[in-house]
Design brief:
The complex is a heterodimer of chains A (291) and B (167).
Chain A lengths: L6 E3 L4 H11 L3 E4 L5 H6 L7 E4 L9 E4 L2 E5 L4 H6 L1 H6 L1 H9 L3 H6 L2 H6 L7 H8 L2 E6 L2 E6 L4 E3 L2 E2 L6 E8 L5 E8 L9 E9 L5 E9 L6 E2 L1 H7 L6 H14 L10 H26 L1
Parallel strand pairs in A: 1-3, 2-3
Antiparallel strand pairs in A: 4-5, 5-10, 6-7, 6-10, 8-9, 11-12, 12-13, 13-14
Helix pairs in contact in A: 9-10, 10-11
Chain B lengths: L2 E7 L2 E7 L5 H8 L18 E4 L2 E4 L12 E3 L12 H8 L9 H14 L5 H7 L11 H14 L13
Parallel strand pairs in B: 1-5
Antiparallel strand pairs in B: 1-2, 3-4, 3-5
Helix pairs in contact in B: 2-5
The chains are: A alpha+beta (291), B alpha+beta (167).
Chain lengths: 291, 167
């Protein structure tokens, strides 16, 4: 399978990329890791006239804590998340997720920025970003703007990134003490999209009362989904078995999965409940183990 | 419309003109006639097209040739040297790591990066490490053994002399 004809440029700087975007408007697509876009182009589901390859632009790949945020450059590969010391020390949720994203070769190419900018509720990182209440930095010739993750996903393959803009950075508030997070997805085989997935971040105070809950769901809604009622039932309380059960129940009620080859709607709702409960429990365990 | 690219393949530089839509695997197989790299699923699932791009294993059916411009590509043809087979190739041979052989070049290239990053992987790490490569013949057990054999040899240890497992 070969994509339809297109023209291609590999700018060496963001400024050059912005001017190409200016020139080609919405005929152009940004090429990051390419492991969502190129398959779509090969299947002719997408046929952009111009590809702007941002892989050669320096300075878009980094993982660092700064100004109260974990800052991740948009072109950071999944495999770099897997081996990062900062991630290993404080953000195990990324290790949970990356292990289940595609396979090692795809993770050598796939980027965090691309995973989000693709705007697909079947991708895994959107749920993580919801759980951690990330901000996405979007850049253009005019400057930068930071968009909260809750305002980032507009619809199927549609995000806040406008035709003249490029997603350049992801900012995650550095979690306070007593925080744990976890992600799991149910998949039929390696490399499959999630049948359902749940990302959870929990912060507990000294008394074990939940002061923060973030819960994001994968592939059970037209857009990446925050399980808001599930979060509310936890915050301000000690997350006992009853509340965790209720959080799972609410998530399964509030999502909107479609029946497909991975399972019918009822099954997916049941899996959302199980996964949400398990990930809350795991996040709490991790919160305790870190003190 | 065509773009001029220069890629180094197994240490040899090639300059060629390609359409931007040309996939890296097509350049390797058709332009350079290095047909050791296979096309299996053509959807980045099976791993038969795995090559190293600047030392990282990637699926060349899902990378544009223009993306490899200025980079180094390694294929299975570059594995053996004048001194003989690469330890991985030897491992696959000794342990019956292949039956039909279609997945083998991709397995070898993937395993090469795996051992580069982790010279002494556990069995589980090997299985996760080759999770992007499908084999429909062996049931994987002998592939895992082949990689363990190569790991031992590359670490300068005695190679395990296990009986191959027929499944």
């Amino acid at each position: 399978m070969i994509p339809a004809t297109f023209d291609y440029a590999a700018p060496q700087s963001l400024e050059e990329a912005f001017s190409l975007l200016e020139q080609h408007g919405d005929e152009a697509k940004i090429l990051a890791g390419g492991h969502s876009l190129i398959p779509m182009m090969k299947l002719r589901f997408a046929s952009p006239e111009f590809l702007i390859d941002i892989n050669n632009i320096p300075g878009l790949s980094y993982i660092k804590e700064e100004d109260g945020y974990l800052k991740i450059g948009a072109m950071t590969r999944e495999s770099e998340l897997e081996t990062s010391k900062v991630i290993h020390a404080k953000y195990p949720i990324f290790l949970d997720a990356t292990k289940l994203i595609a396979d090692p070769q795809v993770r050598n190419m796939g980027t965090l920025g691309g995973n989000l900018a693709h705007g697909d509720a079947a991708n895994d990182h959107p749920a993580l970003m919801m759980a951690m209440r990330a901000e996405v930095v979007i850049s253009s010739a005019e400057g930068h703007r930071a968009v909260p993750i809750d305002e980032f996903f507009y619809g199927f393959y549609m995000t806040a990134v406008q035709p003249n803009e490029i997603l350049t950075e992801i900012r995650i508030p550095v979690p306070g003490p007593g925080t744990g997070n976890a992600y799991h997805k149910l998949e039929r085989k390696v490399g499959d999209y999630a049948t359902a997935g749940a990302a959870v971040q929990i912060t507990l105070d000294q008394q074990g009362v939940c002061t923060y809950a973030g819960i994001g769901l994968t592939n059970v809604n037209p857009t990446p989904m925050r399980a808001a009622r599930s979060e509310e039932v936890l915050v301000g309380h000690k997350p006992d078995a009853e509340r965790i059960e209720l959080a799972g129940q609410y998530a399964s009620e509030d999502c909107s999965p479609s029946s497909d080859l991975r399972g019918d709607e009822e099954y997916k709702r049941a899996m959302v409940k199980v996964l949400t409960k398990r990930m809350i429990t795991k996040a709490i365990e991790r919160a305790h183990s870190k003190g | 419309m065509k773009k001029e690219i220069t890629i180094s393949v197994n240490g040899e530089k090639h300059t060629l003109e390609v359409e931007p839509r040309t996939l890296l695997v097509h350049v390797i197989r058709e332009h350079l006639r290095l047909t050791g790299t296979h096309i299996g699923c053509d959807t980045s699932s099976c791993g038969a097209c795995t090559v190293l791009l600047n030392g990282k294993s990637v699926k060349s059916c899902t990378i544009l040739a223009v993306q490899a411009n200025g980079k180094e590509v390694s294929t299975v043809e570059g594995m053996a040297t004048a001194d003989g087979l690469h330890p991985l190739q030897e491992g696959f041979k000794e342990n019956h790591g292949l039956h039909c052989g279609f997945c083998t070049p991709g397995m070898l290239m993937r395993a090469a990066e795996l051992l580069e990053n982790n010279p002494n992987p556990t069995e589980e790490e090997i299985r996760w490490g080759i999770s992007g490569n499908l084999c429909r013949c062996t049931g994987y057990n002998n592939i895992v053994k082949a990689i363990q054999y190569a790991g031992a040899k590359m670490r300068g240890e005695e190679t395990p002399s296990t009986e191959p497992e027929f499944v």
